[in-house]
Amino acid sequence: MHSSDRTPFEDILLEYDHLVEVGIGQRTGLAERLARAGKDVSAIDVVECAVPPSVRFFTADVSSVAHTRLEPADAVYARRLPPELHRVTAQLAQALDADLHFTTLGGEFPAINVDIASAGATTVYSVVRGESNRI
Known about the structure:
Layout: H1 8-13, E1 18-22, H2 29-36, E2 40-45, E3 55-59, E4 75-81, H3 86-95, E5 99-104, E6 115-119, E7 122-127
Parallel strand pairs: 1-2, 1-4, 2-3, 4-5
Antiparallel strand pairs: 5-7, 6-7
């Protein structure tokens, strides 16, 4: 894929080899593009979702997902993550020893301590493993 066709958020995620998307829903395009780029992608959602064959899917609530069901991950990511899921998603990333990158629904600020980066018109919030425990 030509770099001008990618979003800045996607560019961040392409730095990783093994990713887990939380709350994939019907927006499967990003996970599919990451898989086509040779990344190992798993996704979870509370309801059954149709995902591309290149993406492993698990029906699970992020607050109770057994991380042992998921493949090892370098990064957990979510788009439009509501504030009530920030902490549990960060806990999943921590359990997987993975970085966390997410966007919010819009105007709200994250409910956990994060690093903030502008990625084009999108603000990306991150918790990077190895930094002090901020969850």
